[in-house]
Write a structure and sequence with these properties.
By secondary structure, the chain is α+β, with helices and mostly antiparallel strands. The protein is built from three helices and five strands; from the N terminus they run βαββββαα. The protein has a single domain, classed as Hotdog Thioesterase (Thiol Ester Dehydrase, Chain A). It has a five-stranded antiparallel beta sheet. Bound molecules: coenzyme A (COA).
Length: 151
């Protein structure tokens, strides 16, 4: 049995209220702020799994798409979930929903992290995904596999 099969991977859900300081010059949510929140949500997914925040660095923010804008007073929910585990990497999928409308995400993205030792050298984290988890999360798993081809 792999290490991962003993540990449940859960979805991380973070809610935020958009404030005036989060807006751009169009009066909508600033992309850089959204990117910060999305990366943070994805990072939390990796820490939730590994419990070693000091060993995790971000290697790549990829596949980030802004489908719909949002503005001040909107409540956004960021749902992040492990999409793929490599030998030394972890790729996390995130979807953002606005005001409880969870049919179509307003923003989507993926972030890849790498486990590193104190000298910054990548090391194998020893985690794998169970076949059941891969089956349940097939779409994001395949998207992460596809992204690995385009490094
Ligand atoms: C990320 C970093 C550790 C990768 O180092 P590296 O020597 O290129 O890593 P390796 O070639 O040994 O690859 C290790 C894993 O990382 C993955 N990886 C490395 N760079 C990547 C990238 N740009 N995008 C996606 N995956 C990447 C590899 O595919 C490999 O995955 P696998 O084990 O699942 O096969 C290094 O580039 C680094 O320290 N970057 C700066 C990190 C940083 O400052 N981030 C911002 C603040 S947290």
């Amino acid at each position: 049995m792999s290490t991962q099969e003993k540990k449940e991977i859960r979805e991380i859900l973070i809610s935020r209220i958009i404030k005036s300081e989060d807006l751009n010059h169009h009066g909508t949510l600033f992309a850089g702020r959204m990117a910060e929140w999305l990366v943070e949500a994805c990072l939390i997914s990796t820490i939730d799994l590994l419990r070693k925040p000091e060993d995790i660095v971000c290697a790549r923010i990829h596949g980030m798409n802004f489908h719909k804008s949002s503005t001040t007073g909107d409540i956004i929910e960021i749902k992040s979930r492990i999409a793929h585990l490599g030998e030394k990497s972890l790729t996390v999928d995130a979807k953002v929903f606005v005001n409880g409308k969870d049919d179509t995400p307003s923003v989507t993205g993926m972030v890849t992290f790498v486990t590193v030792d104190k000298k910054g050298i990548p090391y194998a984290h020893g985690m794998t995904l169970s076949p059941g988890y891969i089956e349940e999360n097939r779409l994001i798993y395949l998207a992460a596999l596809e992204a690995r081809k385009h490094r």
